[in-house]
Amino acid sequence: MQNDTSYSNSPSGDGGYNYIITGSGCAGLSLLMRLLQEPQLCHKKILLLDQSPKNKNDRTWCFWEKEKGLFEPIVHHHWHSLNFKSQQFSSTLAIAPYTYKMIRGIDFYQYVMQYAAQFSNVEFRYENVRSIRSENNTAIAITDQHTYTADFIFNSILFEKPTLVKGKHLLQQHFKGWVIETKEQIFDPAIATFMDFTIDQKNGTEFMYVLPLSSTEALVEYTLFTEQLLEQEEYSSALKEYISAHLKISDYSIVHEEFGIIPMTNHRFVKHEGNIVNIGIAGGAAKGSSGYAFQFIQKRTKSIVQSLLQYDHPFTKTSFAEKKFHFYDSVLLNVLANKKLNADKIFSDIFSKCNPETILQFLDNETDLLQDLQIIKSLPTSVFLSAALEEMLS
Ligand SMILES: Cc1cc2nc3c(=O)[nH]c(=O)nc-3n(C[C@H](O)[C@H](O)[C@H](O)COP(=O)(O)OP(=O)(O)OC[C@H]3O[C@@H](n4cnc5c(N)ncnc54)[C@H](O)[C@@H]3O)c2cc1C
């Protein structure tokens, strides 16, 4: 701790905040929004700490859901049909009762911050958080400037990136996306391309993702599941090549770019320790086998708020379903990381043999054992059985 570190307590100075949220990104702001929806919790003294204000459109979230969600007012675009393409199988799939939805990062940040602005008990501070700890039933956050205390810290800062350890798998999902505008009307804004595996699989698993926003605008994203990242220029040349050779577009401008890396791992993230509760990617919200996190963040923050309301504490138990899907994710990661099969073969089998509703429900960790069997039956038995045995014994 540096000498200039001073203690800062609640705005009223009566001994600390009720809650500190470290990291005001997707998970931190989702939790804040849910706390502020509850009459029993919305008056709590809450401090959000982030290294910098969230004022950039730094990411786009896509997810699927059946009902209208908490963030429905800021859904930027939605689709009722998804394209799947590979050398083995290609089809346009109606996904009812689900809708595939897109939320832009900047709209999300502004929406939550504007909503929170009406609560004088919510404070945002922009400071680098060096560490957090739990001591004598108090949660403590240490930043470059201050030390803050609270009853609970909800932490979404990944202080230590998961590393590859024996018996675990770690792949990176890495992607570069461009929002492009064309002069000609080329896209069908009603259909999103969920996965296009018809590109060269030279680096391992790689596919394109195309989300048309109008007939002349689309997000085109190049995604890989591999151990090593590429040079920035390699992502750009793959995008250029796809836009020209597959989408047959020669005249376009790039109006937005995003880049992301999401760990795909069966590493067990600590959910809570003392009075610290981990949320977001830091709490294991990114699904090990797909990298999708937005809806898992929503489920987790919802269950934390429910626990606070019901039991006056935020600790949630790991359910049987969570353990079951963690095992399935480990098996799929085993197959991918050990290059037993490529993902284009696996997803082609699933998409060609199962109905889209069951697939999306499965990817959301919400299927029952009978539905799981439909997915499992669509896959090559010997490869997956031996991977499952290895995972059981590891
Ligand atoms: C470009 C991109 C696109 C994605 N698209 C999708 C998608 O379509 N669908 C989906 O389901 N998931 C997607 N994800 C994955 C996941 O939903 C996002 O990463 C999501 O933002 C994770 O939320 P989080 O709160 O865990 O992390 P973040 O949103 O990254 O929030 C963490 C916060 O902590 C702050 N912070 C970090 N270190 C410190 C520190 N030392 N001190 C203070 N503050 C700190 C950061 O500034 C940040 O604001 C995407 C990820 C990226 C990067």
Account of the protein in words:
The two termini are 40 Å apart. A hairpin with a 2-residue loop joins strand 15 (205-214) and strand 16 (217-226). This protein is globular. The longest helix is centred in the last third of the chain and has 18 residues, at 294-311. The chain folds into 3 domains: 6-58 and 105-161 and 267-317, FAD/NAD(P)-binding domain (3-Layer(bba) Sandwich); 170-264, Alpha-Beta Plaits, CATH 3.30.70; 321-393. It has 9 helices and 19 strands. 29% of the residues lie in helices and 32% in strands. Helix 1 packs parallel to helix 2 and helix 5 packs across helix 9. It is an alpha/beta fold. The structure holds flavin-adenine dinucleotide. Residues 23-28, 49-52, 54, 59-63, 128-129, 156-157, 258, 260, 262, 280-282, 286, 292-294, 297 line the site of flavin-adenine dinucleotide.
Task: Indicate the topology.
Elements: E1 6-8, E2 17-22, H1 26-36, E3 46-50, E4 60-65, E5 75-79, E6 81-85, E7 90-94, E8 99-104, H2 105-116, E9 122-126, E10 129-135, E11 138-143, E12 146-155, E13 170-182, E14 191-196, E15 205-214, E16 217-226, H3 232-245, E17 252-265, E18 272-273, E19 276-278, H4 294-311, H5 320-337, H6 343-353, H7 356-363, H8 369-377, H9 381-393
Parallel strand pairs: 1-12, 2-3, 2-12, 3-9, 6-14, 12-19
Antiparallel strand pairs: 4-8, 5-8, 6-7, 10-11, 11-12, 13-16, 13-17, 14-15, 15-16, 18-19
Helix pairs in contact: 1-2, 1-4, 5-9
The structure holds flavin-adenine dinucleotide.
Flavin-adenine dinucleotide binds next to helix 1, strand 3, strand 4, strand 17 and helix 4.
